[in-house]
Amino acid sequence: MAPDDATVAAETGRVLLAAGRPAEALAQFGRALALAPSDANNYNNRGVALQALGQTEAARADFKRALELDPGLAAAGENLRKLAP
To answer: What pTM was computed for the model?
Structure first.
């Protein structure tokens, strides 16, 4: 419906993640990120999918990037703290 709308891709990713389909969610979050690379939420969302897939270091990098773009993004800070040893 809106192939160039990052919000649609991000929401589709959230639905897929909630449905237990993190690999498919990752693809949608990657699309959202490609469409809106300066949106910190897109990095955070992709990080959540990566974490669900066991890709901890990649998830950590995405959470850090999200915080670089938006230091006040609480969800990214919380997700990063969850990965701390």
So the answer is: 0.93
